[in-house]
Write a structure and sequence with these properties.
The complex is a heterodimer of chains A (86) and B (385).
Chain A: E1 2-4, E2 18-20, H1 26-36, H2 40-44, E3 55-59, E4 62-64, E5 76-81
Parallel strand pairs in A: 1-5
Antiparallel strand pairs in A: 1-2, 3-4, 3-5
Chain B: E1 14-19, E2 22-28, E3 35-37, E4 46-52, E5 60-65, E6 72-76, E7 84-85, E8 106-112, E9 121-126, E10 129-133, E11 141-142, H1 150-156, E12 168-174, E13 182-187, E14 190-194, E15 202-203, E16 224-230, E17 233-241, E18 244-249, E19 256-257, E20 270-275, E21 283-287, E22 305-308, E23 316-318, E24 336-338, E25 346-349, E26 355-358, E27 366-369, E28 375-381
Antiparallel strand pairs in B: 1-2, 1-28, 2-3, 4-5, 5-6, 6-7, 8-9, 9-10, 10-11, 12-13, 13-14, 14-15, 16-17, 17-18, 18-19, 20-21, 21-22, 22-23, 24-25, 25-26, 26-27
The chains are: A alpha+beta (86), B mainly beta (385).
Chain lengths: 86, 385
């Protein structure tokens, strides 16, 4: 599936704004993403497996908050940096 | 003068500056008269602390986060030319199923360990957590038991008991004579000591005041802002606390409030504290207005350091060179530091993005950089001989 990477995280993906990884759940996709781009997961997911406060994850056009949510190969995932103030 | 655990340095000084919007260095000439500011490093990142390793004079660690992303640590082994992110930044233990675990918001404090333990570093976080790296900052693990200990969790209090941008574990101190002898402080949560390499810690709060109406016997209510050990006499510590300035001479475990000797109209509230590297009777503070709603600016808009040269019996104002009025600064707890030259250099970073320096132990001050972002921390390093 296609994962859209925000600019704040493109230092991990060699400046790529789109990458492809697989996973049948959001958690699996994030684990795969971290295997390809080490360190990226901890910047967006806490050690308690919660999405960080100013990060949002959309699958197609629906916001996901549960890492156990299922994904399909045709999904497009958007990792978005929400407003965090000045 | 006793031999100091901070050898006398000389030559050029490099200031490592952490700001709300990135990191910078300021490099001096050998006389510390002229300074050159670097381009920003990690522009836009929130940099809480940048610390050089005095053991190898090459490694620098940087505590970083951004408005959106989680915390991390960057590491340079070539004096800041190139940086690599920690493979495993500090993170709390994951809670059991259904449990309520904590998450590191940001790494706040970095301390290189003892000279005999190369590659060992400590980190303090917000919310309060203590972490250690044994590989020079590449991987980090929770250190000691305190991060998950119910008593320590109680003493740490809630987010509402901490400083406005998150409660912090700071002032991690390693006794230069014994790496098993450790101190740390928490805002809030008091000062703590271990004599067994972190197997056990005990509170060290006797003699410290707390906010009026609360009991000083309750560890949670204690708010140390900055604790410093004297390199020339590691049995002496100084502390700038929310409720005054203190000194502790070991083996006593009772802090003595030496801030009562400050001028009444200035008071003894502030954030940073600096201990002279070669003379344990000398220390500096940078007072702030802690009246009414705690403006946290220089009293009356007139910035000044205050020095004691007799272990707190008396204090002298040092304001030559600072603005005479209308300078509404705040100096954060990590934003005042010193070098170890024979005539000690002092350095102050302000919330308005200025760096002020004195190369004569505070007698005169000059602004050596301005227009930087809000300054969170300043550390001095000597990378030469």
């Amino acid at each position: 599936m296609t994962i859209h990477i925000p600019s704040a995280l493109q230092s991990y993906t060699a400046q790529q704004s789109e990458v492809s990884v697989e996973g049948s759940t959001l958690a699996e996709m994030l684990a795969a993403l971290d295997r390809h781009f080490p360190g990226i997961r901890f910047r967006i997911i806490t050690e308690q497996d919660a999405i960080r406060p100013h990060i949002r994850i959309f699958v197609n056009d629906v916001q996901f908050q549960d890492l156990s949510a299922p994904l399909s190969k045709t999904d497009t995932v958007y990792i978005v940096c929400a407003l965090s103030g000045g | 003068m006793k031999a100091s655990h901070a050898p006398v340095s000389s030559g050029a000084v490099t200031l490592l500056i952490g700001t709300r919007k990135g990191a910078f260095t300021l490099k001096s000439d050998r006389a510390r008269r002229t300074w050159k500011v670097s381009s920003p490093m990690f522009l836009g990142h929130i940099i809480h602390h940048v610390v050089a390793d005095p053991r190898d004079r090459r490694t620098i660690l940087m505590a970083a986060s951004t408005g959106h992303l989680g915390p991390t640590i960057f590491r340079s082994t070539d004096r800041g030319k190139t940086w690599k992110e920690a493979a495993k930044p500090p993170a709390f233990q994951k809670a059991d199923e259904g449990g309520k675990g904590r998450s590191v918001g940001h790494v706040f404090w970095l301390t290189p360990c003892h000279a005999n333990e190369s590659n060992v570093w400590y980190a303090g976080t917000s919310p309060q957590g203590l972490f250690r790296s044994k590989d020079g900052g590449t991987t980090w693990a929770p250190f000691s038991y305190i991060n998950e200990d119910p008593q320590y969790i109680e003493w740490m209090g809630s987010v509402q008991d901490g400083t406005p941008d998150g409660p912090k574990l700071h002032s991690i101190i390693v006794d230069p004579r014994d790496p098993r002898h450790l101190y740390f402080a928490m805002s809030g949560g008091g000062v703590h000591e271990s004599g067994d390499g972190g197997k056990t810690f005990v509170p060290l709060i006797q003699g410290l005041d707390v906010v009026e109406g609360f009991s000083p016997s309750v560890v949670t209510y204690h708010d140390p802002h900055c604790v410093r050990l004297c390199p020339s006499n590691p049995d002496r510590l100084y502390q700038q606390n929310h409720c005054g300035i203190y000194r502790l001479d070991r083996p006593s475990d009772t802090w003595v409030r030496i801030g009562k000797n400050m001028p009444k109209k200035v008071g003894d509230v502030g954030f940073p504290m600096v201990a002279h590297p070669h003379d344990a009777d000398t220390a500096w503070v940078f007072p702030m207005d802690g009246a009414t709603v705690w403006p946290r600016v220089s009293p009356d808009g007139k910035p000044a350091a205050y020095v004691t040269k007799n272990a707190g019996k008396s204090w002298t104002r040092q304001d030559k060179g600072f603005p005479r009025s209308n300078a509404w600064w705040t100096v954060k707890r990590q934003a005042m530091t010193n070098d170890a030259h024979e005539a000690v250099g002092l350095y102050v970073g302000t919330t308005q993005g200025e760096i002020w320096a004195s190369r004569n132990e505070g007698a005169t001050w000059a602004c050596i950089a301005r227009h930087l972002p809000e300054i969170y921390s300043v550390e001095a390093a000597c990378f030469g001989k």
